[in-house]
Amino acid sequence: MSELNQEYIVISGARENNLKNVSLRIPKRKITIFTGVSGSGKSSIVFDTIAAESTRLLNENFSLFVRNFLPKYPQPDTDAIENLSMAVIVDQKRLGGGSHSTMGTITDISPIVRLLFSRVGQPYIGQASMFSFNDPQGMCPECNGIGRRLGVDMSKVLDKSRSLREGAVLLADYKVNSWDWSMIMESGFYDPDKKLSDYTEEELEQLLYAKARKVEMQFAGKSMNVTVEGIIEKFTNKYIKRDVKTMSERTQKAVAQYISEGPCSSCRGARLSQAALSCRINGLNIAEVSSMEVGQLIRVIREINDPVAAPVVKSLTERLQHLVDIGLDYLTLDRETDTLSGGESQRVKMVKHLSGSLVDVTYIFDEPSVGLHPRDVHRLNELLQKLRDKGNTVIVVEHDPDVIKMADHIVDVGPHAGSRGGTIMYEGSFQGLLASSTLTGSHMKRPLQLKQDCRQPSGKLSIKNAQLHNLQNVSVDIPTGILTVVTGVAGSGKSTLINDIFLSQHSDAIVIDQSAVGVSTRSNPATYTGIMDDVRKAFASANKVNQGLFSFNSKGACENCQGLGVVYTDLAFLESVKLPCEVCGGRRFKEEVLAYKLNGKSIAEVLEMTVERALEFFELKEVVRKLQAMSDVGLNYITLGQPLSTLSGGECQRIKLASELHKKGSIYVLDEPTTGLHMSDIGHLLAIMNRLVDAGNTVIVIEHNLDVISQADWIIDMGPDGGSKGGQVVFEGTPQEIIHAEQSITGKHLI
Ligand code: ADP
Ligand code: ADP
Ligand code: ZN
Ligand code: ZN
Question: What is the C-alpha separation between 361 and 579, in angstroms, rounded?
């Protein structure tokens, strides 16, 4: 290989999915951005070829002995890939992990905070593990470090307007004249005739929480030794601290009505032991530090000037600064990772890698600008550049012009989607792209148009005094019968306002977001949209056989893969691997089923058709209507049988949109529908949204994309900033008005 080629990852003859035998070179230690309409083949090059080959090579590093236990990773369909370094994929998959995984744990910042407390916290209490809620030494013993706990719901247990004699305790065990009731009445500890509302705090505390004591009591003239304890104390020991499975179903039900989940009463949600919580630095304990927004926390940490802590303070501020740099300054370290959005998750993962010390790695990003306001895109760019400058190769699939602009190298894939794509249209600098006549090049040159004739609303839906998360008592009207765009920087409160508050008041709204649509591994666009039912019927009547034969779940399905076409192998320490079924070769049905034809095609051949091809093939009115809807949302290139699990978030969202399009008189809520869409596809999306509005629907879109914002009938701009510095409506009005609104950051980007 020539000296020159060492500087490039060289791919020759790539043919995965729709790729037409493409060859290209990607400069090492540079930022290369892949552009092109969705379905053109960007992911087929970046993920299915480059990343797949890297995984396979990684596997070859294992000894032959270990490899015997691993699946044989198929080589990507390509002639050669040279000069590849280890690839790390930083995607938008949500960070799961349950309540024990937080922003602090996932970024490895929490261990440093604990170290800091163990070094300079007062009073000094021991090693760093004392401050970890994942460690038996540090966790709150009451809630095992979860911070939340099942507890007794007081409002259901006491009627304070009554005395004990009148039955103030509502628990079934304490019914008037019951044994437990008598114990309490006769114990002499409590005034049986005073209303509970007149009890002092101390008396109430005793009634509820007194520890068990032996008391001698007189019953029917006989002296007895009995145990008396506070009613909640007793209830907790008897029912809550016990394994529910040992209780009868009836008891479980009876107990459940008095119980609700709430913050742990011992640590008040802080998850840590009392010893850990009493240790402070500059007056703050570790729970207070962890619940502080990162932007404020970094200032607090900088104020620690104890020389013992200097190295720890330095590494901590460095990492916190990365979070600030990437625009996550509104998050807190104790934020549970499963509540982060896809875009936030990707940026958090990015920070983790920035702090690591890997070099000569190929980093692959999938639309990292998702969820970022135009104001913050430059921060993303700076982080990508930092990764590059550490000596890594950075490969990015992206649609945002502001990211594309800063690429060292651009690969434009096209010209269109599916079979009409799969070739390289342009390779080179950004300036060169602008000068080219590719779809991407020509769209980058178009100026923004602000909508002129905005529609008049037919009415309004009001939100009053919303206060969830960072919302600062927000009251706002959402106009009906028009297209409203809700915008604002990340963390300003858009999702909280629309997804949490608005949707909880209007449960009839149709929500179209990016969450996965696959109900089972057998789901595909044909089953999801209902086309499969019509197709099965057509095959059945054409061949005079039972339509059940043509279902993946039936006798007609391949027995080896149960109609999946692939076989999954689960591995303990790697992600599960999917290999084509050896029996049916991925066609999913038995030979005898494949012999039945509809206009010359077998069921497997129909499922391999793209939406575009199927539109030519089918004449059935219902099928054509559903196919047309998919075509309208830009999914022409998808095949009917492609498993939904292989679709991107943006594609899932458009499939949902397609199957909901025919409903009328409804409220639609779309959460960042431009995700995964090329600039040239956004026009189609806008056309669909406008069609929905013209048919009498209300459309509400959460979006950062300037093309969409500029075409709104009405804009609601949240801000001014993220987190505690946001949570207000800073502007309501039309695109023509927002550019004059002083306080709107969004407005400045539309000029
Ligand atoms: P992009 O990343 O540019 O949006 P993709 O590389 O994902 O495009 O898709 C290119 C083509 O390959 C499309 O026609 C798509 O439907 C098809 N394709 C992608 N993944 C698969 C798959 N797992 N199985 C079958 N077809 C696929
Ligand atoms: P946007 O949609 O504008 O990006 P969000 O509504 O997601 O903003 O977030 C607004 C604020 O509420 C942020 O400070 C965010 O960290 C916080 N927040 C959002 N969801 C949760 C949650 N599930 N738990 C705690 N805080 C949250
Ligand atoms: Zn606790
Ligand atoms: Zn099979």
Answer: 27
Q: Evaluate the CA torsion angle 198, 199, 200, 205 in order and state its sign.
A: negative
* Tokens coding 647: 């679709």
What angle do helix axes 310-325 and 294-302 make, rounded to 10 degrees?
Answer: 150
Q: Is the CB of 419 under 6 A from ligand 1?
A: no
DSSP 156: H
Query: What sign has the CA pseudo-torsion 200, 201, 202, 207?
Result: positive
* Residue 602 near ligand 1, beta carbon < 6 Å: no
- Give pTM, 2 decimals: 0.80
620-623's contacts with Cβ under 8 Å and 24+ in sequence apart are 620/534, 620/538, 622/534, 623/531, 623/534, 623/535
Round to whole Å and give the CA distance between 711 and 482: 11
Q: What is the largest CA-CA distance in the chain?
A: 106
Q: Which atom of ligand 1 is nearest to the CA of 41?
A: 6
Nearest CA to 387 out of 401, 373, 408 is that of 408
Where are the extended beta strands (E) located within 398-439?
409-414, 423-428
Q: Which of 618, 591, 631, 627 is nearest to 537 (CA)?
A: 618
> pLDDT tens-digit profile of 301-316?
999 988 999 999 999 9
- The reply to whether ligand 1 has any atom less than 6 angstroms from the CB of 524 is no
Name the residue at shortest CA distance from atom 18 of ligand 1.
Answer: 17
| Count of beta carbons in the 10 Å neighbourhood of residue 4 | 8
Tokens of 306: 């104890």
- Dump the DSSP string for 514-568: SS---SSTT--HHHHHTHHHHHHHHHHHHHTS-GGGGSTTSTTB-TTTTT-SEEE
pLDDT for 573 equals: 45
Asked if residue 32 has pLDDT above 90, the reply is: yes
Letter string b/e over residues 528-547, b meaning 16 or more CB atoms within 10 A of that residue's CB = bbebbebbbebbbeebeeeb
175-234 per-position pLDDT tens digit: 999 888 988 888 888 999 999 999 998 899 899 988 888 888 777 777 878 888 899 888
Tell me the H-state helices in 121-196: 154-157, 179-186
Tell me the domains of the chain and their CATH numbers.
8-93+340-445 (3.40.50.300), 103-147+266-326 (1.20.1580.10), 149-263 (1.10.8.280), 448-517+649-750 (3.40.50.300), 520-646 (1.20.1580.10)
Ligand 1: distance of its center to the CA of 55 in Å? 19
